[in-house]
């Protein structure tokens, strides 16, 4: 019988002509004894690991011959694990072959993008393979507006465009479509718009089929892909802007993020298992009490996990259950993520009720201590509804915005089951608009408070005293 021990247990001399992994690679080696539970001995294989499971055929990894015409078919293996399932594509290694990513289109030929030239033999590993592709969903952090300590919980990116630069060139451009069922991603054939001097001016139309995720290279030959950069834009970048980003590495570094996309059961367990998830981040950040001297210490581990999301790919299961993005409505809220992560649809009703309760207590002279979750727009609308209606003004139904919304299913439900990953991108334009909207709401609220004060019978006397003081 044969036994299996790890390379750290024994030292042996391989047979002549046999390819074996170096001991530091952690591959099991065979001696006399029983069979091992670890990786099997394989000769001259090329293995590509695609993180997650139940992948569609709309994105495929192709192994092409040296002339680019012959396609070699792989064998597929599905590895089911609690936190890190994956699909392996296995070929007999052939010298001079190249890996490409093929993307299905709505019409015409599929889009083919280069992945790796000069493939090498890759020994099978017990966890993460030497070649790895990670399907990702683009997320953004969505903080509230009440404290600088709110780093935001991850939510799906809104409608716009995702740009992927690979090996210092624009590799993929995808348009994000948002629906009640979640986001889909549609490729633009970059090669069709590329010319020697840059890119063709004008609109670039998406022709790729609707994708549930975006496949990106993470590891080649056991080395991290260092040249992959991502950015989000609410509008399609111009040809001149794309040309500048390709030619100017400094501008590209400022505009893009370069997260570590590699994943493994060990890595995800160390970084995320048992750590605060998106729901915990939302509760901690939105409920942060700056007056509490112990608040910073309590929130420190949550901030640490949140920073890990910023620099690394993360399991989608970490994100809080959420509904589809509604940017116009979100900007009316101090805590938009609390609305998105309320699947019941009761957040508007509860916010308006809390605002009216606050005004009622304030009218009785009762100080309300906890106003962390109080929505300023809801309070402004409730205060406006309590004021007398001018003869020339049209009646305003202030409660329309605060009616209950329909309950929904988590838009990430399918992605959680498939165990794909997320990456956190920057959406600075949204943040600026959100904060500007909150400033405008505060100014409106001040004006309403002044109108409300005029109704007090002693307002004139109080105003005179204030002016004298």
Task: Provide a descriptive summary of the structure in words.
This is Transposase. It comes from Pseudomonas amygdali pv. ulmi. It holds the Pfam family VasX_N. The chain has 3 domains: 1-41, no CATH class; 43-264, no CATH class; 314-454, no CATH class. The chain is built from 13 helices and 21 strands. It has helices spanning 190-193, 239-247, 249-255, 265-272, 278-286, 295-311, 327-330, 336-340, 347-363, 376-386, 413-418, 428-454, 459-468, and strands at residues 2-6, 28-32, 45-51, 59-64, 71-72, 75-79, 86-92, 98-103, 111-117, 132-142, 153-156, 160-166, 169-179, 182-188, 194-195, 198-199, 214-220, 223-224, 228-233, 314-315, 421-425. The strands form 5 sheets. Strands 3, 6, 7, 10, 11, 17, 18, 20 and 21 form a 9-stranded mixed sheet that branches. A hairpin with a 7-residue loop joins strand 8 (98-103) and strand 9.
Shape: elongated
How many angstroms does the end-to-end distance come to?
97 Å
Q: What's the number of extended β-strand segments? A: 21
Query: How would you classify the helix and strand content by structural class?
Result: alpha+beta
Give a quick set of tags describing it.
single chain, VasX_N, elongated, 469 residues, Transposase, alpha+beta
Topology of helices and strands:
Layout lengths: L1 E5 L21 E5 L12 E7 L7 E6 L6 E2 L2 E5 L6 E7 L5 E6 L7 E7 L14 E11 L10 E4 L3 E7 L2 E11 L2 E7 L1 H4 E2 L2 E2 L14 E7 L2 E2 L3 E6 L5 H9 L1 H7 L9 H8 L5 H9 L8 H17 L2 E2 L11 H4 L5 H5 L6 H17 L12 H11 L26 H6 L2 E5 L2 H27 L4 H10 L1
Parallel strand pairs: 3-10, 10-21
Antiparallel strand pairs: 1-2, 3-7, 4-5, 4-8, 6-7, 8-9, 10-11, 10-17, 12-13, 12-19, 13-14, 15-16, 17-18, 20-21
Pfam family, one: VasX_N
Organism: Pseudomonas amygdali pv. ulmi
InterPro entries: VasX_N
